[in-house]
Amino acid sequence: QVQVVESGGGLVQAGGSLTLSCAAYGETIENYSMGWFRQAPGKEREFLAAISWSGADTNYADSVKGRFTISRDNKKNMVFLQMNNLTPEETAVYFCAADRDHGLGPNRHTFDYWGHGTQVTVSS
User: Fold this and answer.
1) CB atoms within 10 A of CB 13
2) CA torsion sign, 43 to 57 to 21 to 113?
3) SS3 call for 121
4) What pLDDT is attached to residue 31?
5) At CA 55, angle to CA 53 and CA 61, rounded to 5?
6) pLDDT tens sequence across 9-59
7) Residue 66 gets which letter from DSSP?
8) Beta strands at 118-123 and 10-13: parallel, antiparallel or unpaired
9) Residue 31 phi, psi (nearest 5)
10) Which runs of E-coded beta strand occur in the chain?
11) Which is it for the CA torsion 18, 116, 42, 99, positive or negative?
């Protein structure tokens, strides 16, 4: 089974940008569609974006459409989330996940393997 590890989180000012990375180990990510989620304290885990195994298809939550971009590099076994124009309300732990059934979200329960997350803090 695949293991995923997120990185790239940190502190950014409101209106700023950040790119998150997700490195996969143990198996090629070509076997999976991949997604990004986030969870703020006291809130449900929220779907952000997903990408098909080839990268040809993507799906975004309305809240991030036009500001976030998901991409993948299968040769490097990595997935990325470019985030622009961040707001303080988007402070959360951001998670990468893999779906062996190639779904594109938004249901988090269809994703099988999860990382431990990376903290993103947006200051006002």
Assistant:
1) 11
2) positive
3) strand
4) 95
5) 100
6) 999 999 999 999 999 999 999 999 999 999 999 999 999 999 999 999 999
7) T
8) parallel
9) -80, 0
10) 3-7, 10-13, 18-25, 33-39, 46-51, 58-60, 68-73, 78-83, 92-99, 113-114, 118-123
11) positive
